[in-house]
Amino acid sequence: xxxxxxxxxxxxxxxxxxxxxxxxxxxxxxxxxxxxxxxxxxxxxxxxxxxxxxxxxxxxxxxxxxxxxxxxxxxxxxxxxxxxxxxxxxxxxxxxxxxxxxxxxxxxxxxxxxxxxxxxxxxxxxxxxxxxxxxxxxxxxxxxxxxxxxxxxxxxxxxxxxxxxxxxxxxxxxxxxxxxxxxxxxxxxxxxxxxxxxxxxxxxxxxxxxxxxxxxxxxxxxxxxxxxxxxxxxxxxxxxxxxxxxxxxxxxxxxxxxxxxxxxxxxxxxxxxxxxxxxxxxxxxxxxxxxxxxxxxxxxxxxxxxxxxxxxxxxxxxxxxxxxxxxxxxxxxxxxxxxxxxxxxxxxxxxxxxxxxxxxxxxxxxxxxxxxxxxxxxxxxxxxxxxxxxxxxxxxxxxxxxxxxxxxxxxxxxxxxxxxxxxxxxxxxxxxxxxxxxxxxxxxxxxxxxxxxxxxxxxxxxxxxxxxxxxxxxxxxxxxxxxxxxxxxxxxxxxxxxxxxxxxxxxxxxxxxxxxxxxxxxxxxxxxxxxxxxxxxxxxxxxxxxxxxxxxxxxxxxxxxxxxxxxxxxxx
Length: 572
Known about the structure:
Elements lengths: L1 H17 L5 H12 L6 E6 L3 H13 L3 E6 L16 E6 L5 H10 L8 E7 L8 H15 L9 E7 L4 E8 L8 E9 L3 E4 L5 H4 L7 E7 L19 H17 L2 E7 L13 H7 L5 E2 L7 H4 L2 E7 L4 E6 L3 H4 L9 H29 L18 H12 L11 H29 L9 H5 L4 E5 L2 H6 L6 H11 L6 E2 L1 H10 L2 E6 H11 L8 E4 L8 E5 L5 H13 L4
Parallel strand pairs: 1-2, 1-3, 3-4, 4-5, 9-10, 9-11, 14-15, 14-16
Antiparallel strand pairs: 5-6, 6-7, 7-8, 12-18, 13-16, 13-17
């Protein structure tokens, strides 16, 4: 009989330990958390409650219009939570369940604590009498000990909710500044059934956790000239590695704000994918997790979007083709430009009409003249009946101001000829004046890559690593044709800055260069009159360089907020 009682007690204890019911107070707490602290519209809960209790909890949550899913730890489909993490979704785990510890370990192994994943870990710390207080303390220590080795970093949202009594919950947030640091516990506040959520600090985690406790973060600076190491802050050689020098100052600002130390390394290239699909340079270091943040801003291109994360700290710069507008006579036939197309058509119509009137009046004049005896005629009179070609010669002589062989005698013929002479004189004056102006004009018709490709201008490219990569990387028809025709297998187009700007100064030459480099060199070497008429054509068509960090960096939000503050305070 005694053995049966012992077996019954053991079964009861095992049943109670395997099942942990969720009451209505937990439902109210989760509803408030979804609308305030975590601001989410759905969640997945992992409980070990029985079916009846689970159904009651689900009905309570549904009445508050929250999407939810309640899963068992033994559910083979839901225990693997490698689903797409939505910032509007979070997870709830009942730590009092036997499977809770192992479940959290698996979630950590799969990297499920990184942003934007959010977690609530429920703990029942109610003490029925003094005999259980030490047990509860040991269980809480067990939770902290478990999480102290997890990848819970500053971007993680892990809230531990400990139930103190029937109506009160104590809230704590846990994170580690880095993998080598100890766990930090933040006191968020309390929740009670009567007062709701009462927070100690309403700041976002990116503001609360800005102090990284002096951890060391790795970064890399891209330098095309190693002498830049000696001139990062003294404003010497400003044209050399200008983007690196600007980014370096911003990195120092972030270092002070985050209370972190940056360990700098140097790379000679920003980073591009090789034939084996591996990345080199600074991007390769970020891809392999060897550095945390890129110390030099880089262009945003499609191939890098899935490899690194971009942060909206733009470095105002860019590369363009720079050239002086060429003389108009090199681009167009200036002899057709003085008049618009409609004017030329009007001139032709006028000549046709004048020719018709001239034929009629000349025929009339011959009819009057042939009745006069030859000995009574004057010099310049018609000697025979005018033909169409005769009238055409008169027309051309008047139009081109070359004169003609006969003199009009009748009033009608004189009116026609005088009208042609006056109009020809006016057109000639306007035409020659426009020709003189056009000879002194420059062409403004080179606006696109296609215009440049089909112009008489020769091209050159500043010989720097990213230009050699980008010029052959584009696949759109215009830029691909431009590269094939003017750049590929032509080593002469690659040249240093000084040579390229000097050839731009000489004219009929377009040089692709960073705008900062190009305009600074022009300011130092060009005469004032030579600075007029500089045109730009964008070949790369990319955004200004941005700061880059490793994919899913735990410091992303802290860095982003720091950069926003930097921009708001105009430290640029």
